[in-house]
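Task: sequence design from structure.
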């Protein structure tokens, strides 16, 4: 049962994440109108692969890939190879996958993805060495320093000479969901996690392989929120501690709605602060859910999703973001259609609405959606 409980917690987090990301970001009436007015933009249909459009601006487009489907569905694999510059394994590099038993490492499924990357000239992003979820049941959270050392040495060591893996999410989601869930008001870390442990984790990682880019990755930081301020503090702490940290992973599981606005100003200031600290902001897990009121037709919903992408990416590119990874590429395989992660409040009790969960650039049949054109257009317009 602990597995199930974990998922329930996660579902709770999803709802909370929505509240954190958007609820606190409600803007005044004027802003809301602005947001609504922006809906109905048109985006040209550009057939050039996204990786090529991005490369023209010295940027990269990536997607999370699921090995389970990558080696079964040729059309899906072809789409990833065609569109992406970089991929993130959906689960194959998480602790439960790489070290299912203490000290017993398995890399079969992650290596299969690494080989796919090599064959198709894609980069691979290492996600992730430290997370309170995606962990084997034997592992406590937080793990002891000895467990961390063994894990990081085993996993990073395995990919030390990889021709494709160039970056790691050293730690994922270490900031608590809210100020009620932390014993550490300064850094807002999850219960039991000490800033020194994270510092040591980054240090161990650098001792194993300092040739890769190191990120701290989190969600709910796409605006001026309690979480984003704690996240920035933690980045500052790591910088001041003198450990190697190259990037800040901004997950960006976003919720858009006509009922509230997006905190563009707050998000821009998060990006600016990161750039000022010399830590590169990177978009690591972008997808867009439309919160209630859910539009009554798919075209209307797709338009909103597309506008959400454009609006968000314009802000990112204005702050010189160079890597954007969506969490999946097709609505056929999106984590939020899974009952464990579904945004329950809006969609959970109403199966008629599930078809409105269309957060990604391609539809179930791998046809490009308006969102794909919006992403292409944002890359094209980036300076
Ligand atoms: C998700 C996967 O997509 C699911 O298939 C899995 O069951 C749970 O994890 N933030 C993260 C990702 O950092 O690792 C999560 O991925 C989505 C939220």
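Answer:
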């Amino acid at each position: 049962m602990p597995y199930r409980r974990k998922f329930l917690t996660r579902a709770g987090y999803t709802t909370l994440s929505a509240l954190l990301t958007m609820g606190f970001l409600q803007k005044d009436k004027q802003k809301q109108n602005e947001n609504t007015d922006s809906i109905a933009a048109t985006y040209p249909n550009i057939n050039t692969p996204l990786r090529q459009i991005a490369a023209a601006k010295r940027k990269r487009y990536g997607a999370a890939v699921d090995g389970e489907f990558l080696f079964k569905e040729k059309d899906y694999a072809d789409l990833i190879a065609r569109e992406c510059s970089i991929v993130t394994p959906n689960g194959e590099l998480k602790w439960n996958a790489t070290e299912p038993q203490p000290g017993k490492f398995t890399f079969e499924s992650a290596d299969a993805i690494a080989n796919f990357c090599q064959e198709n000239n894609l980069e691979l992003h290492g996600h992730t060495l430290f997370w309170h979820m995606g962990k084997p049941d034997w592992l406590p959270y937080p793990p002891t320093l000895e467990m961390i050392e063994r894990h990081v040495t085993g996993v990073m060591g395995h990919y030390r000479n990889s021709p494709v893996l160039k970056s790691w999410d050293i730690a994922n989601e270490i900031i608590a969901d809210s100020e009620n869930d932390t014993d550490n008001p300064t850094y807002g870390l999850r219960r039991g996690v000490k800033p020194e442990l994270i510092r040591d984790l980054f240090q161990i990682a650098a001792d194993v392989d300092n040739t890769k880019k190191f990120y701290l990755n989190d969600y709910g930081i796409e605006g001026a929120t309690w979480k984003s301020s704690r996240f920035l503090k933690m980045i500052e702490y790591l910088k001041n501690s003198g450990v190697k940290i190259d990037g800040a992973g901004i997950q960006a599981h976003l919720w858009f709605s006509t009922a509230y606005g997006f905190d563009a100003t707050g998000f821009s200031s998060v990006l600016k602060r990161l750039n000022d600290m010399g830590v590169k902001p990177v978009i690591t897990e972008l997808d867009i859910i439309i919160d209630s009121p859910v539009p009554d037709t798919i075209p209307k919903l797709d338009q909103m999703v597309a506008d959400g992408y454009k609006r968000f990416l314009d802000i990112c590119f204005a702050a010189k973001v160079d890597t954007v990874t969506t969490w999946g590429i097709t609505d056929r395989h999106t984590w939020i259609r899974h009952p464990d992660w579904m945004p329950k409040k809006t969609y959970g009790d109403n199966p008629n609405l599930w078809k409105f969960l269309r957060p990604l650039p391609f539809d179930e049949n791998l046809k490009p959606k308006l969102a794909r054109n919006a992403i292409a257009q944002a890359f094209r317009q980036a300076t």
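Residues 90-91, 134, 172, 251, 285, 335 surround XIL (CB under 6 Å).
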